[in-house]
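Researcher: Go.
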Amino acid sequence: MDSRGGFYRTGSIRRRVVIPYTELDVLERRHAMKVLLVLRDRGVMNKTELVESLTSGAGSVQTRVDDLLAAGLVEVEEENVRPFRKMISLTDKGREVADLISSVRGLMSS
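Model: Structure:
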C-alpha cells in the first residue's frame, strides 16, 4: 500500500498526516479525467486517436491508460488484423465514474 503525507500546524505543534493511497487518487493524476470523458463521449478509440484528442504526449496518455486499466475503469482489446491496434474503451464502472465527473462539471459551470 502506497501512502502520501503532508504537514499541518495546530498551534505551535507541527504534525505529519499520512493519507493512504486509494483508487480515487488515480483520478487526480494528469489527464485521467480527460481520458474518461473523451472515451465517454466518443466510445472506443485507439491510442493514436486518444492522444490526438487530448493534445498530449503518447507516453503520458499510455501511462494514464495503464493507471485507469489497473483501477478497472478502462479495458484494452488488441485487434487481430492489420493494423494491430489496441482499442481502449470504458468499463461499466468507468462509464459510471465518467458520468459522475460530467455531472460535477455541469454543476461547477452553472
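Model: Residues 1-5 have pLDDT under 50 and may be disordered.
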